[in-house]
Amino acid sequence: MNPAINVMKMHFKEKWSWFFAPWIILLSSFLINLFVGYLTSGDEPIYTGGLCSIFAYMLVLGIVTLTHMFHFAIGLSVRRNDFYLGTSGMFFVVSAGIAVLLLLFAFFETTSGGWGVQLHFFHLPYLNDGSLIEQFLLYFVAMLNMFFLGFMVSSIYQRFGQYGLFVFFGALLVLFSCGTFLCTYYGWWMDVFHWIGQHTAFGLSMWTLPFLVIYIIVSYLFIRRTTV
Amino acid sequence: MSKVVDIHNLTKSYGKDIAVKDVSFSIESNKICGLLGRNGAGKTTIMHMITAQLFPTSGDLKIFDERPYENRDVLNKICFIKESQKYPPNFCVHDVLEVAATLFPNWDQRFAKRLLKDFNLPRKRRIKKLSRGMLSSVGIIIGLASRAPLTIFDEPYLGLDAVARNLFYNHLIEDYADHPRTILLSTHLIDEVSKILEQVMVIDKGELIINEEADSLRGSAYAVAGLATKVDAFIQGKKVINKPHSLGGFTSAVIMDTPKFEDRKQADLLGLNITSVSIQELIVHLTGGNSQGKAVELQ
Question: Are B82 and A75 a contacting pair at CB < 8 A?
Answer without folding.
Answer: yes
